[in-house]
Design a protein that fits this description.
3 copies of one chain form a homotrimer. Chain A is of the alpha/beta class. Chain A folds into 2 domains: about 160 residues, 3-Layer(aba) Sandwich (Rossmann fold), CATH 3.40.50; about 150 residues, 3-Layer(aba) Sandwich (Rossmann fold). In chain A, the strands form 3 sheets. Chain A has a 5-stranded parallel beta sheet. A 4-stranded parallel beta sheet of chain A has the order 2-1-5-6, sandwiched between helices. In chain A, helix 2 links the parallel strand 1 and strand 2. Chain A is globular and about 55 Å long. The termini of chain A are close together. Chains A and B meet through helix 2 and helix 12 of A and strand 2, strand 4 and helix 3 of B.
Chain lengths: ~300, ~300, ~300
C-alpha cells in the first residue's frame, strides 16, 4: 500500500481484513518494523477514537508519533495564486513539503464545511496534502470519506458474521446537528467490496452521492429494509442534495430494540443516545460498537504496516 | 494495587512510601515493566505538574503515554437515560469502554464545578470512568480528592522529618478565586494514616467535610495551631458549607516567615506569592515545595508500578 | 554546550555546522545518547516547524519528549515581589524549578508582545527560565532571537554555496501584520560569524537593533544591495524604532524572480505568498526554503547532542 486516502488503495480487502485479525492476536509482532519511523498526525478537527487508536497502532509497530492540532500552528492557505494578505499565513505547498521531512507517514483529519458542496467534494485539504507531501498520506476522515472507519467496520463484520453472506443495512438516523456523509460514504463503498447483501434505508431525499451508492438498493421503508438483517449500521448524515441541511429530525427513524430484531447494531461513535439509537440497543449484547472501536486500532495498524513495508 | 482513585486503594502506605523512595534512587530500574503498556491521560482541566510528572513516571517505567484534552474530543454526557439532543455528543459509557481498549491504565483529571455540591460530591466523572472502564483508573485530581498529591506529600514528610512523630499543620490561606477542597481533603486523609500529630487551622466556618476530617483537632487560632509545628501545609480552599463561596480573603491568614518559625513549609503548587504565602517563606530553605513537586513523579511511579504488577 | 539561548553559546560554529551535516547523513547514530533523558518543550505561542523538528531531533537521539502548551497549564507571573491576587496563578520561579525536575533539557518558545519594547528586549520570559531552571535551556524563538533557525540557515548556506565567500543579503519584505525582529536578528548575528559578504537592505527607518547589526552595511536600495547576491534571505519585521509598528507595506519590496537574478531564495517559513515573495520564486529551483526547514531538525539535533554530552 502506497497510501490510504480511500478504500480503493487497499489492493485486496479480504487479505487486509485477515491480516488485521492476525495483528489483533499479536499486536507487537512487528514492533521492529516502525523503528526510527515517525507518524505525524495532523488534526484540523476534534478526535477521540481516531487520535488514540491511530497513535496506538503506530506505537504497536514501534513508530514514533508526533501530533499537531493545526490551529496551534498557522492557518493554512489552499488556493493557488492567492495574495496572502488576509488570514492565512502559510500555504499548504510549504506545510506539506516541510512536514514530510519530519515524517515517514502523515495522517490528516479534515472535516467538510457542509456549506460549500463543490469545495467539500473536491477534497481540497486531503488532496493538497497528497499532492505536495513527499511521504504517504493516511486519511483520518476527510470531507467525504472515512476509510479507516470502514476498514474497522469490515473487520468487525468479518469477525462476527455467522453467515457466508450476511445481510447488512445502512440505516439513516436523526440528529440535531449537520453531520458529514463521510462515514456513510465509506461504509457504502466498503460493503460493495464485501460478500454481503447490502441495503440502504433513509428518508426520501436523503440520498447519498449516487456515484458512491451506485446500484445499491435504496429502500425508504426502514422496516422493510431491515427485514432479516444480520447487521444494521445506523448513522446520521446531513442532506447531500440540499447540501448540509438538516431537513429531517423525525424520531421515528431512531433505532430501537424492537426494530432491530436479532441483528447486530453497529455505529462508528460518538453516538447520541436516545436520538440516534435508544439505550436498550446500545446496552444490549447485540450492540457491537465497542468491538468496532477496538478494531480501529487494527485497521490503522494493518494500513501502517503495509505502508511501512512499501517505504 | 488495582486502581488509585483514593488513598484507601494503597494497601500499605508505609510500604508505598518506602518503595517510592527506592524508585527515586533508581528511576529506570523497572523500565521493562511497562513495555508495550499504554497510559492514556484524560484532562478535563488545566495541568502542569500532574501532566508532566505522571507522563514522566510512566516513561520511567517504559510505558507509552497518550494524552487527550477532552475538549479536543467530544463533550461527554454522564447522566443515564438522557435524550442527547443538546450539547453532549458522546456518553461516558461508550467513551470509557472505548478508551479502555487503547489503554492499559487510564488517568483522569476532572475538577469540581464548585457550584453544585451534591453533583461534585458524587464524583460522577471519576466514578463513571471507574464504572465503565475495563482497565485501572488513576485519579489525577477529581472533584473531592487529589491522592497522587497526598502520596507525594507523605513521601516528602517521610524523607524530611527529623522526628519519629512530627507535628503537621494544615493551614488555610486566602485566595482571590474559588478553589476545590480536593488537595486539603486528601492531605487530611493521608495524615490520619501517618504517624504524625495532625492539626487543622482555618477561619471559623471553613470546615472541610467532617467525614474526612473526623477527629482531627481543628484550631481556629492559626498561631496556636502552629505552635511547635514541624511541617506547615498551606492551602486555600473555598467554603464547603456555603459551597464554593469565597467568604474570607483576610490577608492575616497568609503564611509568613514570622509565623512559620522553624517549621518546613509545604504547598502543592501552583501558589500565589504574597497572597497565600509571602516571598520570604518560599525563597527560604524552609520551603520544601520544589521537593514536593519532584515527589509527584515517584508517587505516580509507585502507583503505576503497583498497578502494572497487578495486570 | 551548556545551553542554547543565543548563537554565542556555540563554541565553534563551523564545527557545529559540520557536525549537523554528519548527523543528517546518519540521524540515528547517537540514539543511545538520549536514553532515559527527557526534553520538555514549553510553548507560549504557535509553532509548526519548531515543534515538529525539535521533537524529531530529540527522538533521533533517543530522548523522550513531553510538550506543554503553557495556556493549558497556569498563567505565569514573571515579576518579583508581586502580590499575585490577579490573573497569574504561578510564578516562573516555581514553574521553572519544578519542570527542571521532570526534564533533562527545557526548550521554550515565547514571542514578544511587540508593544512594550523594554520588556521585550529584556527577554524576561527566556531569561527567567534560564535563571530559575536547573537544567539547560534551549531557545525555540524568544522575543528577540531565533538561534535554532539561524543555525539551520547557516547549515543551509554551507551546504549550498558554490563559492568560498558567498554574498548573502537580508532583504526586508512587506507583511500585513506586525512580526518580531527575532529571525532577522539571529540571521544577522549568524552571518557576522560566517565567512560571507553580508548586506542588509530595508526601507529607511526599518533599522534593526544597531547592537546586533554593528558594522554590517545597510543599503536602502534593494536592487543595489542584491547585486551579485548568492543568497537572498527575505523576511519581514515590524519597525524597531517605532516599536512594533507596521509603517510600510510597500509591495515594491516583495521579492520577485526578476529581482532575485541567480541568487538562492531563503525564508524561515511560514511565508505569505505574493506578499513577501511571489509564487514564481517559491516554486522555482532557486528557492531553498524546504531544505532550510529540513535543516531545522539537524540544527536542533546538534544542539541537543552537545547539551546531552555536557550533562
Amino acid at each position: 500500500m502506497k497510501k490510504y486516502t480511500e478504500i480503493q488503495d487497499i489492493p485486496n480487502i479480504q487479505d487486509a481484513i485477515k491480516e488485521a485479525i492476525l495483528l489483533k492476536m499479536d499486536p507487537f509482532e512487528y514492533k521492529e518494523l516502525g523503528k526510527n519511523k515517525t507518524l505525524v498526525m495532523l488534526f484540523f478537527n476534534a478526535s477521540l477514537r481516531t487520535r488514540l487508536s491511530t497513535e496506538k497502532a503506530a506505537k504497536n509497530l514501534g513508530m514514533d508519533v508526533m501530533s499537531l492540532n493545526v490551529n496551534e500552528a498557522w492557518q493554512l492557505e489552499f488556493d493557488d495564486g492567492t495574495i496572502m494578505d488576509a488570514n492565512t499565513s502559510e500555504h499548504v505547498k510549504e506545510a506539506a513539503q516541510v512536514i514530510s521531512q519530519y515524517a515517514d507517514v502523515i495522517a490528516v483529519r479534515a472535516f467538510p464545511s457542509l456549506k460549500d458542496k463543490a469545495k467539500d467534494q473536491s477534497e481540497y485539504i486531503l488532496k493538497s496534502f497528497e499532492k505536495y507531501a513527499t511521504v504517504p498520506i493516511i486519511n483520518m476522515e476527510s470531507a467525504t470519506a472515512h476509510p479507516l472507519q470502514a476498514l474497522a467496520d469490515a473487520i468487525t463484520i468479518t469477525e462476527l458474521t455467522e453467515k457466508k453472506v450476511p445481510k447488512v443495512v445502512l440505516s439513516w438516523a436523526p440528529h440535531p446537528k449537520a453531520l458529514p456523509q463521510a462515514v456513510a460514504n465509506s461504509f457504502a463503498t466498503m460493503m460493495q467490496e464485501m460478500d454481503v447483501e447490502f441495503v440502504i434505508t433513509h428518508p426520501e431525499g436523503y440520498e447519498l452521492d449516487p456515484e458512491i451508492t451506485k446500484n445499491v438498493p435504496i429502500v425508504y421503508d426502514q422496516k422493510e429494509a431491515m427485514r432479516n438483517a444480520d447487521f444494521v449500521y445506523v448513522k446520521n448524515w446531513s442532506n447531500f442534495k440540499e447540501y448540509g441541511q438538516v431537513l429531517n429530525t423525525n424520531p421515528s427513524w431512531m433505532m430501537t430494540q424492537e426494530k432491530l430484531g436479532n441483528a447486530k447494531f453497529m455505529h462508528c461513535l460518538p453516538v447520541r443516545r436516545n436520538v440516534v439509537v435508544e439505550d436498550a440497543v446500545l446496552d444490549s449484547e447485540q450492540s457491537v460498537v465497542i468491538k468496532q472501536a477496538n478494531n480501529r486500532t487494527f485497521a490503522a495498524q494493518v494500513v501502517l504496516k503495509n505502508i511501512l513495508e512499501s517505504l
